[in-house]
Amino acid sequence: MLRLSALYRYPLKSGKPEILQSIGLDKLGLEGDRRWMLVDEASGRFLTQRAEAKMSQLAALWNAQGGLTLSAPGHAALEVPLPEADSDLRGVTIWRDTLRVPDAGDEAARWVSEFIGKPTRLVQVPLSRARMTQSGYGHEDDQVAFADGFPLLLIGEASLQDLVQKVGRPLEMLRFRPNLVIEGSEAFAEDGWKRIRIGDVEFRVVKPCSRCILTTIDPQTGERSADREPLATLQKYRAQADGAMFGQNLVNDSNGQLQVGMPVEILE
Question: How far apart are the first and last CA of the chain?
Fold first, then answer.
């Protein structure tokens, strides 16, 4: 039997994960997932571990009011309240999308600038200002917060174990930053799924996930692997026209609750 074996939320894009036992869903995926983001103060361009590997050590815990608690080694924790949806708007760019979203204020900016080492702002995206998902996939009204392209990412445990065997050393699932982890399926079975149900919520499987250099960063230490693993191996046996694929992007078709241990049903 297939079941949901792990749930992860990333309140701050490219920050540390929250390991969850249960979570609600809204229009943008897991409640509170990647609703906050760091941007370069001058350009408004988004920052991630791809260029700032130290972000792997940045914890941003979500609170019930939608705010954050920021913490990192050597830095005192900071409580950041949820900004108003239509005030202190800042123009930001994430991939090809440009949008205006609320800025978290100067105190938060000082904290994240000190951590990153250059002028940086912290921004938040409310539902009313969310982006559309990647064109050509899913439905026209599908939306996403600050995730790269889609609200949710799913990976099967067996897929990771297949990769581990080929690389020849243990690999953490969190290198790949999934939201949903499934156990009980064969390796890469998720590649063939089109629709699934977990609890009362149905999901559409819309696109495989193309992997990047971020997978080479150890989530515990923030260090990059000198041999470019596991990306190098993925590029050998999981390459497609758009890159090395690992995991599947999902869109939820309703709200609801998820809990670790729930059965997973393949609908199509």
Answer: 16
Do 15 and 60 contact (CB within 8 A), yes or no? Answer: yes
Let me know the angle formed at the C-alpha of 203 by 266 and 192, rounded to the nearest 5 degrees.
45
By the 10 Å C-beta count (0-12 exposed, 13-18 middle, 19+ buried), 25 is classed as buried
**Count of Cβ atoms closer than 10 Å to residue 202 Cβ:** 17
Query: Using CA atoms, how far apart are residues 126 and 28, in angstroms rounded to an integer?
Result: 10
- Report the DSSP beta bridge partners of residue 268: none
Contact 195, 255 (CB under 8 A): no
Q: Which residues pair with 45 in a beta bridge?
A: 93
Q: Are 208 and 169 in contact (CB under 8 A)?
A: no
- The answer to whether residues 267 and 12 touch, using CB atoms and an 8 Å cutoff, is no
| Separation CA 81–CA 70 (nearest Å) | 11
Distance CA 155, CA 211 (A): 13
Q: Which run of H or of E encompasses 245?
A: strand 243-252
The model's pLDDT over 93-105, given as tens digits with 9 standing for 90+, comes to 999 999 999 999 9
Write the CA distances from 139 to 90, 119, 180, 230, 251, integer angstroms.
28, 37, 21, 32, 9
pTM value > 0.85:
yes
Report strand pairing: 152-156 vs 180-183.
parallel
Peptide bond into 151 cis (omega under 30): no
Contact 29, 179 (CB under 8 A): yes
Residue among 252, 245, 179 nearest 207 (CA): 245
Contact between residue 64 and residue 43 where contact means Cβ atoms under 8 Å apart: no
Residue 226 CB neighbour total at 10 angstroms: 7
Please report which confidence band the pLDDT of residue 215 belongs to, taking 50, 70 and 90 as the band edges.
Answer: very high
